Amino acid sequence: MSTKLALSAAALLVASVAGQVVAEEVNVYSNRQDFLIKPIIDTFTEETGIDVNVVFLKDGMAERLEREGRLSPADLLLTVDISRLMEVVDKDLTQPVDSEILEKSVPAQYRDADGQWFALTTRARAIYTAKDRVGKRDDITYEELADPKYKGKICTRSGKHPYNVALISSMIDEHGEAETKTWLQGVKANLAQKPQGGDRDQIKAVNDGVCDYALGNSYYYGVMLSDEAQRETAEGVYINFPNQADRGTHVNISAVALAKHAKNKDAAVKLMEFLVSDEAQHLYASANHEYPVKDGVEPSELVKGWGDFAADKRPLVDIATHAKTAVQLVDDVKFDL
Amino acid sequence: MKRTSWTVSSWVLALLLTLPIMALIYEALLPTEDVFRHLWGSVLPTYISNTFRLVVGVMLFSFLAGVPAAWLMAMCELPSKRYLQWALILPLAMPSYIVAFVYTDLLDFSGPVQSTLRHWFGWQSASDYYFPAIRTLGGAALVLGLVLFPYVYLLARTAFMEQSLSLVQSSRLLGCSPWQSFKRISLPLARPAIVVGLSLVAMETLAEFGTVNFFAVNTLTTAVYDTWLGYGSLNAAAKISAIMLLVVMLLLSLERMSRKRQQVFQKSLGQEQHSGYVLTGLTKWCALVFCWSLVLLGFLLPFVILCYHAIRYFDKAWNSRFFEYSLNSLLLSSVVAGLALMVALVLAMSHRLTGKTYTQIPKRLASMGYALPGAVLAIGVLVPLTSLDFAINDAALWLGLAEPGLVFTGTMAAIAFGYLVRFGAMAIGSVESSLGKVSPSLDMVSQTMGYRPSAIMMKVHVPLIRKGILAGVLLVFIECMKELPAALLLRPFNFQTLATYVYQFVSDEQLELGALPAIVIVLVGLIPLIFLNRSLEQTH
């Protein structure tokens, strides 16, 4: 009996330290940097009185959730990139949300049919071209980057970065594995330098004449244009949306999902619904110069200035299924070496 | 405390610190589909050769920079030595991924250096001139060497300072030149410390991810991250980590075996006033240029560039919560440094008391965490700690109490444990190399005087190896200030360290906004640095 008593005392002590009683709150695990989501979160808290706690987890969100199991404090998962999202979904770490608001606001191709996840913004995988040496190329395609006439003219970041993996996956979905491999080999042969740096470095490289064409996500261009110190560099390049004549430009998403063991489910769903409101969609998208998923919500003025484009309509879930093959192809052709 | 209880506690501590690694080894033993075979057939051979060349390059640089600098500071009189001796530690306070970012930015084709050159000489394209490419293995080795050489410097300087001057004096009386006396007396005596320093450098390089990534150099750590995140196979990632660990252990034990017969003790405390060689003329200037350029390249230049960004982006970057983040970092780092010291003392003492070879094992076991990439180690930490959390919660349920939630993984405990596993090796290595130089006859004398082991440790050993202890604590502290991948994965809600805060910006390619908090990291790291350095000087 005395051991049980001692244990109870210890447990009580632990409980009083660990289990603080708080008003309504939502705990968010996020792939997105705190500073990008803070303005939206603050607005939400102001309007609803619900506190939001955020942990920025770059890698390992799925492992942490998996290990924490039913004890996990996470309510909401904010992810970027479809394969990282599918990892938490496939490992059964999310739960479906049945919300009319969410279903009405997010177009079907950008959410899970069972409500396991909802995209919030999209980002286009663009091709940047040098203003002076190439000019605007509205007719450009991803496929032609492998054309030998571009030898020594192309820049990109590591082939294994999630953004490139998703693009390669979409190529596999369109052309099959063998053809994509040939394409990758062609692109590699055309590289001006070993894959390196981030997406902004590619814009810099084009501006400085290291290469004429570069792959990069649309929002980096926006971030650079709105930064006085980097505007000049960004102004040296055009942003082009590839494959407008056929399947459309490849887009990736940032998304939200309800954690399987969410303890503050109601508040969490409220935050999800807030994130697809017109106001938050605009705020959230313009914080990082992305595209709102909700129809009728305008992107930021800057982003609008780049003109409309047709996005690849194939379901992102299909693309995510090829992610592993894509990484294998990158290794096979020694893209980064 | 009795001898057996020292042995028992050392084993308990060692096993505790090994839990995450055992979790990973268990993972590694699970089937890995064909990921491993695929890697082997494509990129792994290149990764292995890159890793080998990088580690050798960084170690070579650290040795060539760290040992001469340490000797100059410990044995010679130089103008500005008062500043130099701690300025040479400063590169450590600078997170390596920041230095990497600064240098790639500076020396890239688009960077200010090459742009200016093109502007001056009217070059149009890269084919018009030669400029060494920075994003290469050589560039990575150089930059890593610049930030890592202080490990060797710090430990070697401590060793040189702990050396009894009478030995050096005797060698000089016997006709050795300063160089011969260095080669035949000082260097062999300092060898354990230098080896510990170099092995820290090697392990840090092995586990390095952010920096090599900036330099587009793929190493085994890249493979670990790729297999984990790209192929989605934690098992295969754990397998590669386990192989890396094995190689490290093998190398370390080879070195130990080669030193087996070499046992040198110092009778004196190494605390006499060093007369020191007074350098003059060309030698003086060479020494000064050598030391100051290390400080300049490893610290001042990146620091100035950070300041430039910080001033330019001050309005956007200033955050009223810096104070809170600094306090978090400071507190966490101090706690872990203290714990690491206790672990190191217990492990070193238990070995010393029994003198049996097998008591070396706990020390070796407890030092393994350092060679693991931070994020992988963090997963290893999660495994045992979440199990513990579940046990506590299940117990609470059984007792009819409310579940307390994640007592360990939901709090600072997980981060602190992770850091201890990762950086314990630094304290252990430093204490060990210092203690090794204290003659066992002192222990025997103390025993005949009726001292118990704990009293011997506190009254005899600790005062004698104070410098080694300080160096070890300092290293652990500074590493904790900068540590990133484990912190990212293990930190609880509403807990930012300066490093995680900076990383948000770096990971979004916006170092400009992270420059200000990065400076705070360096400045907060400087406080204990100056404090510790002062006490190092006082005993001298």
UniProtKB/TrEMBL annotation, chain A:
InterPro entries: Ferric-bd (IPR026045). The keyword Secreted does not apply. It holds the Pfam family SBP_bac_6. Transmembrane segments: none annotated. SUPFAM superfamilies: Periplasmic binding protein-like II. Residues 1-23 form the signal peptide. One of its GO terms (molecular function) is metal ion binding. Fe cation binds at residues 219-220. Keywords: Iron, Metal-binding, Signal. GO terms for cellular component: outer membrane-bounded periplasmic space. Belongs to the bacterial solute-binding protein 1 family. PANTHER family: IRON-UTILIZATION PERIPLASMIC PROTEIN (PTHR30006:SF15), THIAMINE-BINDING PERIPLASMIC PROTEIN-RELATED (PTHR30006). This is Iron ABC transporter substrate-binding protein. It comes from Oceanisphaera avium.
TrEMBL record, chain B:
The chain crosses the membrane at residues 47-71, 83-103, 129-156, 193-216, 236-254, 285-311, 331-349, 370-392, 398-421, 468-493, 513-532. It holds the Pfam family BPD_transp_1. It is a multi-pass membrane protein. One of its GO terms (cellular component) is plasma membrane. Residues 48-252, 326-532 form the ABC transmembrane type-1 domain. It is found in: Cell membrane. Keywords: Cell membrane, Membrane, Transmembrane, Transmembrane helix, Transport. InterPro entries: MetI-like, MetI-like_sf. Signal peptide: none annotated. GO terms for biological process: transmembrane transport. The keyword Nucleus does not apply. Its main location: membrane. PANTHER family: IRON UTILIZATION PROTEIN, MOLYBDENUM TRANSPORT SYSTEM PERMEASE PROTEIN MODB. Belongs to the binding-protein-dependent transport system permease family. This is Iron ABC transporter permease. The lineage of its organism: Bacteria, Pseudomonadati, Pseudomonadota, Gammaproteobacteria, Aeromonadales.
